[in-house]
Input
Amino acid sequence: MRKLKVTELDRLTPEAFKQSKKMPLIVVLDHVRSLNNVGSVFRTSDAFRVEAIYLCGITACPPSAEIHKTALGAEETVDWVYFKDTPEAVDQLRRDGYTVCAVEQAEGSVMLDDLRLDKTRKYAIVMGNEVKGVQQNVVDNCDICIEIPQYGTKHSLNVSVAAGIVIWDFFKRLSD
Output
C-alpha cells in the first residue's frame, strides 16, 4: 500500500465546492467557546458538503488565526452566518422548513443509530457548549433530541468529535 499524495486526491477547488450540491444540513454551534472546535467543525463540514454553519452567541467567527489552524481554509469554503442568540437561529431554521435536532442527552432523546431521516427534508443539528451543552431554551424549541450512544465511563464527547459523528451519520443517510 502506498499513501496518496495530496495532488492525487482529486479534491474540488474552492470555487467548485461553492457551486457543488450540498447535503441538506446546517450545523448550529450554540455558544461553542473553543476556536479549535469551531475550526474542526468547519473542516468536517467541508469534507461532507454541509450547507452552512450557524455560529451563535459567544461562538467566534472567521476570520481568525485560531479557527484557521484547525479549519485549514474550510472557513472560506463553507457558508456561515452569525446569530447573537441561538433561539433566533432555531426560529429562522424552522421558518425555512428545517427539522431542527439538538444533539443532547435529554428525556425522550432518540439514539443516533435509531434515528430515521427523510431524504426529502432539510435538517439542522444544534451542537452545544463544551461545558453546559445545548441551552435548555434551545432544546425546548427543537423538533427532536439526538443522543450519541456511549458505552464507557464518560458521559460526553468533545463537541467537534460529536459533530463529526453526527455529520457523518447524516451524510451516509441523506446522500444519493
